[in-house]
Design brief:
There is one protein chain. Strand 11 (312-314) and strand 12 (318-321) form a beta hairpin. The protein starts with 19 loop residues before the first helix and ends with a helix. Helix content is 28%, strand content 15%. Helix 6 (207-217) runs parallel beside helix 8 (248-270). It is an alpha/beta fold. The strands form 6 sheets. It has a 7-stranded mixed beta sheet with strand order 6-7-1-8-17-2-18, sandwiched between helices. Strands 11-12-14-13 form a 4-stranded antiparallel beta sheet. It has a two-stranded parallel sheet with strand order 3-19. It is built from 12 helices and 19 strands. The protein binds 2-acetamido-2-deoxy-beta-D-glucopyranose (3 copies) and zinc ion (ZN). One 2-acetamido-2-deoxy-beta-D-glucopyranose (NAG) is lined by residues 98, 101-102.
């Protein structure tokens, strides 16, 4: 690993003075997003502190609806990867709209955790933990202690901290099933990924087959029907990366997801369980359009500090850098920012680097030895590369600051424990773990969600009221 024995003379000391103007763009950007987050928090307070919201179903809004066919509560979480908040307005989506109209939805979307990447977010949804506490701090990273590499195919339990919902559920003697989810194949506690309930990841399995398998669980004897189920689709993330969020192929992919929801709803109706199942349809993150005109090249900083590619753990949209031992990380951060703010580095004002402990605390991205010491926040839609190239590629990316609206995804919940026709303010996905344990009436592991928030979104049962 650490084969770089060059001295810290790499750190040039002769950089030009920083100009205030270029920092303004980034700072005002950061302020705008911080305001958006605090507005969401304030709105949330107002919403939940008001005792009545006008609803056509105000009498039934007080408590959950009884189960008609199932003998125990069931939660099905469906993830549509990269379903950016707003995609649901691109065209008419009759099935998703049916879930929204008769369910509870986050009015301005679900807020992902930082970094807004697939593995960190999926694992936050099922553990209720911010990434430093569940350990999956990026889609791939190197453990700085033993040098081992985590990637999206790593199933060794040592990487996966926290207690995912399938483990919590089976620890309580209930059944869980996973039709794909990051971490679901990892053996933890009483969860050993049983072959009939835990599908090994295979992206070639047709989406319809995934839906039909989940439906088939409802044909099992009552005590074999899982209390908790997951279902995962790679779209529209796949199209979002290739074509960006505004392409017609996104609209087509979203129409397909809607058709899959139709297939699921019909299958449940045929089995008489649609009104009994708590369906949570969500995504892991959104998508921002990228273009090679919006590139920041690390090589352009050479006049201030040389950043060899061996130091870079990931480039974009999450820039993370681990210099070899012996280098001063605070010097590197200072030199990089000096160059970025100089006005002489292309798009420099759209990247700001931090020592991880100096990142805004709202990002919850410092408290893990796995996170490299230097982290960059990249402007929305910008791309960090080692070398400026002459490409003209456009596409989409995610991983940016979770305060950007473009990173938001959907939260749509339908079922006996969710009010019909209700909109709730945006919230972070770490709140979902407690909602599921509430619905299943089990004690969860300690996590970063708040029990009172879950109680405000999930309807109480009659027995809770009495
Ligand atoms: C919403 O639920 C009510 C009560 O079950 C039902 O009559 C109505 O058809 C549902 N609406 C939609 C759009 O599914
Ligand atoms: C993945 O799924 C496809 C389609 O069902 C199947 O043909 C293939 O054999 C599967 N691959 C593995 C490794 O199971
Ligand atoms: C998140 O939860 C974990 C586990 O309970 C705890 O150790 C950690 O301090 C929490 N962090 C925050 C920021 O709440
Ligand atoms: Zn993606």
């Amino acid at each position: 690993m650490a084969s770089h024995q060059e001295s810290s003379a790499l750190l040039s000391t002769a950089g030009p003075r920083k100009t205030a103007a270029s920092t303004l763009v980034f700072i005002s950007l950061a302020i705008t997003t911080a305001v958006a987050l605090s507005a969401a928090a304030a709105f949330s307070f107002l919403f939940f502190s008001s005792s009545s919201s006008p609803s056509p179903h105000s009498t039934e809004a007080l408590s959950s609806r009884p189960l008609s066919k199932l003998k125990h509560p069931v939660v099905l979480i469906i993830s549509s990867d990269g379903f950016r908040f707003g995609y649901q307005f691109k065209t008419d989506l009759p099935n998703i709209n049916r879930l929204i109209r008769n369910g509870t939805a986050a009015e301005l979307g679900l807020i992902p955790v930082f970094p807004t990447l697939t593995f960190p977010n999926h694992y936050s949804i099922v553990t209720g933990l911010y990434p430093p506490y569940h350990g999956i701090i990026n889609n791939y990273f190197t453990d700085p202690i033993d040098g081992q590499v985590f990637n999206m195919g790593s199933h060794e339990p040592k990487w996966w901290l926290g207690e995912p919902l399938w483990e919590t559920v089976s620890n309580h003697g209930l059944k869980a099933s996973t039709y794909f989810w990051p971490g679901s194949e990892v053996h933890k506690g009483s969860w050993n990924c049983p072959s009939n309930y835990c599908m090994p990841y295979n992206e070639s399995v047709p989406f319809e087959e995934r839906v039909d398998t989940v439906l088939s669980y409802f044909d099992l004897p009552s005590d074999q029907i899982p209390s908790f189920m997951t279902l995962y689709f790679e779209d529209p993330d796949h199209q979002g990366h290739q074509y960006g969020p505004d392409d017609v192929r996104i609209t087509n992919a979203v129409v397909e997801i809607d058709a899959l929801m139709g297939r699921l709803i019909r299958g449940m109706e045929e089995r008489g369980v649609f009104q009994d199942v708590n369906i949570i349809l969500l995504g892991d993150h959104g998508m921002a359009g990228t273009c090679d005109k919006r590139v920041i090249a690390l090589d352009d900083l050479a006049e201030w500090v040389k950043i060899p590619k061996e130091w870079v753990q990931s480039y974009t949209p999450l820039l993370s850098i681990r210099p070899p031992p012996g280098y001063s990380t605070s010097d590197i951060v200072a030199k990089m920012n000096e160059g970025l703010e100089s006005g002489r580095v292309g798009n420099g004002e759209f990247l700001r680097v931090y020592l991880k402990e100096d990142l805004p605390s709202r990002l919850h991205y410092s408290d893990s030895y796995r996170i490299p010491p230097i982290v960059g926040l990249v402007g929305e839609g910008f791309t960090v590369k080692q070398t400026r190239s002459s490409g003209q590629e456009c596409g989409g990316a995610h991983g940016y600051d979770n305060a950007f609206f473009s990173m938001r995804t959907i939260f749509i919940a339908h079922g006996p424990r969710f009010a019909r026709g209700r909109k709730v303010p945006s919230f972070e996905n770490v709140q979902i773990y407690n909602m599921v344990t509430r619905i299943l009436k089990i004690d969860g592991a300690s996590n970063n969600g708040s029990v009172s928030f879950a109680d405000a979104v999930v309807l109480p049962t009659h027995s809770n009221l009495e």
